[in-house]
Amino acid sequence: MTQGTGQDGVLLGLVWLATDGLSRLADAMSNVPVMRSPDSRQSVLDMVRKRNRAFAPSRSDRDLEEIKNFIVACQADDESFDLLLEAIEIYTPRDDPDLFTLKNLANTLLRRAALTKSELRELLALEPDQIATADQLIAGIRRARPGSARSDIDPRNVREAALLLLDDPSPRQGLTQLLRFVAWLADVASVIDDPSGSPKTGRLRDWAQRTASAHGLTATARQTPAFPSAADDRDLDPRQQVDLFWLIDSSSSMVIDDRINLLNAAMRAAIPKLRRGFAERTAARLMVGVITFSSGARWHVPPATPIEDLQWTDITAIGPTAMGAALRLAANELETPPIPRQALRPVLILVTDGGSTDDYRTGLDAINSTPWGKRALRLAIAIGPDASREILEKFVADPESDLIQARSPREIREAIRSACALVIEAVPAARGDATPVPPPPATGVDSPAASGAWIKVSGGQGMQIGDHNEQVNYFAPVTVTQQGTGTRPRQPAGGAGLRVFVSYSRQDERYRERLEISLAQLRRDNVISTWHDKKILPGEEWDREIDENLNNADLVLLLVSPDFLASDYAYGREMERALERHESGSAIVVPIIVRPADWLNSRIAALQALPSGGRPVSRWPNRDDAWLDVVQGLRRLISG
Fold it and tell me: Bigger pLDDT: 637 or 292?
């Protein structure tokens, strides 16, 4: 291959020539003398067909209509228009001003690609249309040119997709985009035929390598986005890809209390932290898409936009709440392809302050019917008091996974930040483990692991999800000096077992029930007896029963969640009394983190929490493993 220049370059833009452009080109061509009569046009047609027998424009009795047909027929391949211009030029004096006008207009409307015509012919000879459908080609274009694919143009085949990608103000950038697209095609071919490498996969990659070399593109040319060769695993390793889809309510109600502006500010703040979190803590590459929904649904950020390239553009709020349309739009991306078969499970985050004004059920059905939709991690952020809990719980589709609540506008930023932290937490750590591994203890911490208590500290290797200058480590052990911490609960005489008081929020009833089930063996062995407010009998005085059992408890378990922290009774009364007894050494308090919450900024931050590392129960891939970890931790505490 040799690098093309001038007329060797593939002609661009003819396939998508707008109506006014087609009319201007036809008018200019009709002024050239040889195109003015049917007989002379037939001579031009015969000359073109000698070199391209496939050229067959529709004929017409009207001159201008027939000339337009000549131009439209040129859209079928990459050379016919050049042959047509050459034939017109042969039959026209070189100094003809109308010929000069025609050539200048053609050069203005239609650019040339860096790719040569022969190179494009070689690519199409590999029969790439057998690899992907027309719908799948759109996904490939979005991956090759994130954020700039023409949403109003659907390429019918690989040739049209190639011309679309090549059609860039910078010919070199256009060629780079095409090479990325061919790399994507090769990956798709390997999935369809043989993951170990099909002949078609090898031929496509070989074509891309030779073309990149001929045009001076290398995998290390970072200033211009490089052709992704095997040396650049960021682009070619689909096994390390995570697709994140935000579905954001942009209806009129989001104007209330300035919610939409606070949401925009929260997203602007979260993106760099999400980018940094993935770079520092995971082995994956994050691809992001953002759907907004109001009177309809649209891509605010195209799918498969690399997090490194994502720049937030503010969302405006107006119209109804077409949540179903957003779910259906997302479902289109949850196939293989566009998501590679070897990718990690995608993440869907639904953000809304209301219900749905269209049929959300068909949207949920569409997501649930896709292979990736069934496996996806789904999170939901409920803004304000009117968000439909019923719809959001159906979206999350996990009875033990809870909604992220933003009851007031000021909580929107924390809700977005919590969701981003959960996305990072759900992805394998950089060392390739099945689940993220807590970082080692921070340096500079006094007497690490002396008591086994865990606390939020600054410094170390923790994930940055706090303020811009604060690095948070959720796993660093420090010594806690409060009296009673680390002591063994007193075993009552007579073998009656330790008296355990469970404090929780009513919204966490199902977690309390799961805890009861998990503690069954400890109760059978008479190691513990449990009490909670559901054991209050009719006619008994509520406050007196709670106070009596709390004051007599040996062990107090706090089921910590955002609702627990917000409860004036559970947090403000039960927990305060429990901490008083804990500090006096008369009882032990153990927080059990059931849902993500800001507990590390509360009074219980200095206590040893369960499950291990303070990881919320709702964020364990298998909830039974989480509860087993809780029980084992309690057994160690009791027997220690």
Answer: 292
